Amino acid sequence: MNRRQMLRAALVPTLVLGLATACSEPQPAGSTDVVDPGTPATPSASPTPSQPAAPLTGLPVASAAVAARPAVAVPIRVTPATTPVGLGSADLVYAEFAESDSLHLTAVFHSKDATKVGPVTEIRPVDIRTLGVLHPFVGYAGGPTGFLSQFENSKLPGVTPADDGDKVFSSDQTSTAALLKAAPKGIQPPPAVLDYGTPGAALAGRDLVPAQELTISVPGGPPQVWRYDAAKSTWVGKVGTTTVTAASVLVLTMEYKTLEVRKPSPRSLPSANVFGEGAAVAVSGPSSAKGKWRKPGLDKVCNVTDLNGDLLHPAPGNAWVFYVPSTAKVTIR
C-alpha cells in the first residue's frame, strides 16, 4: 500500500467531509471569480529520489537524519511594516488574521533549517489547535495567562525566552538549530497533513480552473495578493515587507470569535476556530480548485478535499494555509 493509500485508509473514515450532498453546500464566503478550465502544465519528470519524502512537503529530504527528527514551530507576528525572517525555510505556514492589520503566523520547520526565525511572538489558541497533530517543539514568547494554560494542557513541548537563559533566543529571534538542541529526546517526526500529488498530477478531480492570481480581502485590513510565477512554478506573495513563495496556497473559510484577554493586560483578540468544517479554495501550480475542509479536533489532521470528497493533491513543496473569516472575499483570476 503506498503512502497516499495509507493516508486515505487511515483518515477517510473519520475525517473526509460528508460531501455526498456537496453540490448543495454553500460556496466560499465572499466571491470567487474563475475562468474556463484549462489544461494544467505538466512538469518535467524528476529523477528518482535517493531519500524518503519529507512528510510536510512531499519532497526528498537531505538525509535520513533529517527525516527522523522532530518538527519545530514558531509563532510570528507580522504587521505591514514588519520584516519577518526564516519563512522561506518553513515547510508549512499557517496564517490567522489578527488585530491591527497584522497576521499571526504559525511557521513549522522540518525538512529545512533557518539560522534566524522571527520576530517570535506569544502563543495563541490558533497555534495550539493547529500544531496538536504535528507534535513539534515550539519556541514562543510567553502569552496571556489563559493561553499559557491552554498550551500546558495540550502537552505540546516548548520553550520561552524566560526559560532558556539566552540559549535559544536572541532578542526576538531564534533558529531551528537552537530549537532542535533544546527539544527533549523522543519527539517523533511529524505526520503528513497534505496528500501531495505526483509530477503532472492534477490538483483536483473536478472544478479545476487555471489561476494566475489569488486575492484575500478581509474587512479593515490590506489584501493578501499572491501571483503565480510560471517560470519558477511557484506562487509569490508579500508578508510585511518580505516577499515569500509557496508551491501551494490553501484558503480555509471559518468562524472567527473575539477573545477577551484579562491577564497580564486587558485586550480583545480575534481568534480563528480551526475545529469544524467549511469551504476551501486552493491554488497549486497554474490551477485552482474549490473544496471543503474538516478538522474534528486537536489531534486530527485537517483534511482538504474537492467537492466530491476526494483529497486535493497539491504540488510537492512548501505550503501556506490561510484561515479566513466568513466576511472575507476570495478572488481567483
From TrEMBL:
<feature type="domain" description="DUF3048">
    <location>
        <begin position="56"/>
        <end position="175"/>
    </location>
</feature>
<feature type="compositionally biased region" description="Low complexity">
    <location>
        <begin position="37"/>
        <end position="56"/>
    </location>
</feature>
<feature type="region of interest" description="Disordered">
    <location>
        <begin position="26"/>
        <end position="56"/>
    </location>
</feature>
<keyword id="KW-0732">Signal</keyword>
<dbReference type="InterPro" id="IPR035328">
    <property type="entry name" value="DUF3048_C"/>
</dbReference>
<dbReference type="InterPro" id="IPR021416">
    <property type="entry name" value="DUF3048_N"/>
</dbReference>
<protein>
    <submittedName>
        <fullName>DUF3048 domain-containing protein</fullName>
    </submittedName>
</protein>
<feature type="signal peptide">
    <location>
        <begin position="1"/>
        <end position="22"/>
    </location>
</feature>
<feature type="domain" description="DUF3048">
    <location>
        <begin position="226"/>
        <end position="321"/>
    </location>
</feature>
<dbReference type="Pfam" id="PF11258">
    <property type="entry name" value="DUF3048"/>
</dbReference>
<dbReference type="InterPro" id="IPR023158">
    <property type="entry name" value="YerB-like_sf"/>
</dbReference>
<dbReference type="Pfam" id="PF17479">
    <property type="entry name" value="DUF3048_C"/>
</dbReference>
